[in-house]
Amino acid sequence: MKSFYSLIILFFLLAPLFADNPLYLDPNQEIDVRINDLLSRMTLEEKVSQMANTSPAIPHLNIQEYEWWNEALHGVARSGIATVFPQSIAMGATFNPELIERVATAVSDEARVLHHAAARRDIRLRYGGLTFWAPNINIYRDPRWGRGMETYGEDPFLTGLIGTAYVKGLQGDHPRYLKTAAGAKHYAVHSGPEHGRREFNAIASTKDLYETYLPAFKTLVDAGVEAIMCAYNSTNGEPCCAHNYLINEVLRDKWGFKGHVVTDCWSLNDFFTSINVAEDAVEAAALALINGVDLECGSVYNPNLVTAVERGLITEDQIDVALSRLLSTRFRLGMFDPEEINPYANIPDTVLNSSTHRALSREVAVESMVLLKNNGILPLRDDLSRYFVTGPNASSIHALIGNYYGVNDRYVTILEGIAGRVQIGSQVQYRPAILLDRPNVNPIDWSTGSASVSDVTILVLGITNLLEGEEGEAIASPYYGDRLDYSIPENQLDYLRRLTRNENNKIVAVIVGGSPMNLKEVHELADAVLLVWYPGQEGGNAVADVLFGDAAPGGRLPVTYPMSLDQLPPYEDYSMEGRTYRYMKESPMYPFGYGLSYTSFEYSDISLADRRIRRDGKTTVRATVTNIGNMAASEVVQLYITNPPSRVTRTPLFSLRGFEKIFLEPGESREVVFEIDKDMLVLIDDYGKETIDAGDYTIAIGGALPTERSVELGMPVPVRTTLNVR
Fold first, then answer.
1. What is the dihedral of CA 482, 488, 490, 494, to 10 degrees?
2. Where are the transmembrane segments (predicted)?
């Protein structure tokens, strides 16, 4: 009997060695092996359940519940206390990819902390995962679009470089694991109008597709972005989330994209409720799957894909292909591995909203601020007798955060930043004076009197996310988030006019907002105009850093400010003719790449290593930049190429082909060198093909778009040379 019990004990000890040890739970196996093993154990219904943004747990397979939907445009959003960085358009204005990669690295650090802390408590809510639907790399082609603040501006080259930096920071550099999964959106021709976006059909020529709307997506695919989100609207007559050409032919076959495609939320419902490309939800689900969509944000895929298989509209093998891409993301995020072997699973909680991350947010804000005008009033002394801070955005948190924002317990408003910077004994007085976008109910105005007895008035104007943003977010917008009225609110201009009636008033206008707006009258009336975008949780301190000269403003405009909307084509027109710095012939209010400094720069000595090259050749161009002023500051050195006129297609006026942000002490000079290769000479023809024409190419290097308007506004004279291509 004793030996019998010994055998029983031995059996239980050895049983695990003979038990089914699933390959998909073995971290030493290749991911493809693990995926195939897991798929073989799943029913059709279980597979389909994992193809919606809210994916339920499958306990017998050790699959945890997972919510794919998460946001991180400028910090972890909607999840809990996290660092709120400046809005994306401000990141574009830095012209500094290295800085933005540091931002995204901080964001992904915080994302890992928040995710694991919640998961360890079995909290698996929306906005708590590791798959982020960011960055937004749509081209900001028209200032009326309310979501332009989410982008990096109007230029495909700049957008691609800043977007790549953000993806690298989010995803990390581990050979096996993703830190988080980035998702580039909205593929592919999407930039308004907001109202009716689900039914809108964007008509884009093949040239505009390959010259403007697709390049940034191609750049991010080459950089290894894990996901692509298809847009709500249709492009050239086909819904973007069932667009065989864009998804299957271009994204997957031509570019070799290996990640997953996700719909914008509930876009598949439109297939059978408004645009009528499917009879019902089952057909809609099948149509999206056939055309390359792997994950749905919404409720059409589950359970309708099961019915689609039963009807013969799709096969289970097609579901396996799509689900395998989603499982690959989850395996690469480490969701089926022990935490102790995942290098990203144990990032210390102390990084969350840390002093280091707060300092980084402040640094980005300073580097993004664009000085639009300065008659010498800035930088301010910090020991004046009385400062008057006023305007509807001076004490507003909305003026800091933009949209898709996180929450924080220590926002620093512009008023607070200024108040904390002046010397003891100096007075800081504050009155909001006016409402954001409508006349005061009470006509009595004490604020103009306060301005008249102050040494300087800091007037914080502009707009907020109440007036611009996504369709359902901008609750004060009469245009569903868009800005069909280009002016800043008239009541703000009225207040500025009243202040300037006293000629002794010294006025610094601080402009908040994420989109171009008509600042012509502000420019005329104010002594200085500083554009601060949505500068994040440390925005007030960053504004004070710039106003008081602790740092020079480092930003450049990533988008053109037209004089008026009369200079632009209709909003709904997606042709690039007449749009952005590349095709807008009229002189703008502020050009692309523009931004003044507290010092002056001079460009000289441009030279080419070769004056003539073959079409497949390369050369280098160099120029000297000198700080001829009295303050150390950064300069964004910009390289523009103008192709010779083409006989077969429209030629851009200019194309940004390189930039470098440098820091120079007073009197310091530096030689900046750019390599010019065939990719920088390419012109896209009317068929979407790359061509390089023989002829003379104008090479310009300067601190802004190389136009008369830039120089007229105070930018240094650019240097130019000619490269002959044969």
1. 170
2. none
> What does the alpha-carbon distance between residue 84 and residue 542 come to, in Å, rounded to a whole number?
13
Ranges assigned E (strand) in 14-110 = 54-55, 66-67
Is 264 considered catalytic here? yes
Predicted local confidence at residue 21, as pLDDT: 83
Cis peptide before 443 (omega within 30 of 0): no
- 19 pLDDT higher than 70: no
Is pTM beyond 0.90? Reply is: yes
Q: Give me the amino acid identity at 658.
A: G
pLDDT at 20: 60
Say if residue 193 is preceded by a cis peptide, omega within 30 of 0. Answer: yes
Give the whole-angstrom CA distance, residue 650 versus residue 639: 21
User: What is the secondary structure of 425-454 as a DSSP string?
Assistant: TSEEEEE--S-SSS--SS----HHHHHHTS
Q: Is 673 helix (H, G, I), strand (E, B) or coil?
A: strand
Nearest to 405 by CA among 470, 359, 478, 475: 470
pLDDT of 1 over the 60 cut: no
- Sorted by where each begins, the domain ranges of the chain are 23-351, 369-559, 601-725
The pLDDT of residue 16: 36
Angle at 667 between CA 634 and CA 705, to 5 degrees: 45
Residues 6+ apart with CB under 8 A from 151: 88, 89, 92, 136, 137, 138, 139, 140, 159, 191
Q: Which residue has the tokens 């290996």?
A: 258
Cβ contact 308:279 at 8 Å: no
Cα-Cα end-to-end distance for the chain: 96
Q: CA-to-CA distance for 68 and 77, rounded, in angstroms?
A: 14
Looking at this protein, which amino acid is placed at residue 561?
A: Y
Give CA 443 to chain center in angstroms: 41
For 416, 641, 656, 705, 724, the CA distances from 698, given in Å and listed in that order, are 48, 6, 12, 13, 9
Task: Give bridge partners of residue 578 from the DSSP assignment.
Answer: none
* CATH class for the region spanning 369-559: alpha beta
Q: Could you count the other beta carbons within 10 Å of the beta carbon of residue 490?
A: 12
Residue tagged active-site, from 264, 294, 482, 685 = 264
Query: The CATH number of 23-351 is which of 3.20.20.300, 3.20.20.60, 3.40.30.10, 3.40.50.80?
Result: 3.20.20.300
The dihedrals phi and psi of 152, each to the nearest 5 degrees, come to -100, 10
- Measured CA to CA, the distance from residue 527 to residue 508 in angstroms comes to 6
pLDDT tier for residue 347 given thresholds of 50, 70 and 90: very high
d(Cα 471, Cα 473) in Å, to the nearest integer?
Answer: 6
Does residue 581 have a pLDDT over 60? yes
Spatial separation of the C-alpha atoms in residues 267 and 291, rounded to whole Å = 14
Q: Distance between CA atoms of 565 and 577, rounded to whole angstroms?
A: 15
Q: Cβ(308)–Cβ(285) under 8 Å?
A: yes
**Residue carrying structure tokens 């504050």:** 430
Residues 6 or more apart from 586 whose CB is under 8 A from it?
A: 562, 563, 567
What is the rounded CA–CA span in Å between residue 228 and residue 294? 10
CB atoms within 10 A of CB 376: 6
Neighbours of 470 (CB within 10 A): 17
**Per-residue pLDDT band at 321 (split at 50, 70, 90):** very high
Superfamily of domain 601-725: Immunoglobulins (2.60.40.10)
